[in-house]
Amino acid sequence: MTVETILSVQDLKVYFGLGGRSLGGGRRSAIKAVDGVTFSIRKGETLGLVGESGSGKTTVGRAILRAVNPTSGDVTLTVGGKETNIATLSRKELKGFRRHMQLIFQDPYSSLNPRMTVRDIIAEPLECQNYGSRAEIDDRVRDVAGRCKLNVEYLRRFPHAFSGGQRQRICIARALVANPEFIVCDESVSALDVSIQAEIINLLMDLQVELGLTYLFIAHDLSVVAQISSRVAVMYVGRLVEFASTGKLFDSPKHPYTKALLSAIPFVDPDQEFDPIRLDGEIPNPGNLPTGCRFHTRCPFAREKCRREEPLWREIDTEHMVACHFAE
Q: Which class in CATH covers the domain with range 5-266+312-322?
């Protein structure tokens, strides 16, 4: 049985700072935040997108939702058997289409309007879409709040009355209220305590089964990604360097950058030696990228070919993609 692909991203590019001149009079180079990213997500699955800060993960998620306009590329979302290229929608078409795709923000504190009650915060997407009468909206808000483990009396309160975990539940309820098919979770548990992270992850997984949701789960914590994701994409300076099922990626990583990320996961056992791979230097400037492989400036295994030639994005094993000259 073939699993339906709900989201297809083809050669997505997001450049900033195009044109104009710098203070010194020279022409400004483009900041290549996302530079030719291609992947797909199957209906009902969670794809984890990981990488260091500055690798372009959040920009990918926002470009998919058109919170940031892509420079080029196609983003196709399949809803009800109909394919829609989000990248080409007009502003008017996009407003009507947004109910199919939503975003859960990273910071549950700054992403909620302190002047609005919880009821109004959750109801806002419905009111923007002219969902129905106030009574119908209230019924829908109460239903979604209950699914997110929020008491009905919370709906009259303001965000300052809640803890971080409760605020993130409000954010999840707001994302779910319009009944979307696809949700981008932008580091949605990174600002929470570990015990609360587990509760939110379990809630997201339960809602996924209950409502048939599909997630793009953006994170830098690989231990969290391992818990929720069925496949994982690793990103470095605007490009994917490895893509595989969660089991394959954790058991047999092929790219040196992936190995370094995995080695940095701390152990629970205090007697087990913790010896992460140390990468020298900083992540390259996306406005002044090195030639050849973008990782060669920090790679402990770099050779002359890595400095000259950019590695091809290739399948090294069944559904295991990698961009490395010497992945074997």
A: alpha beta
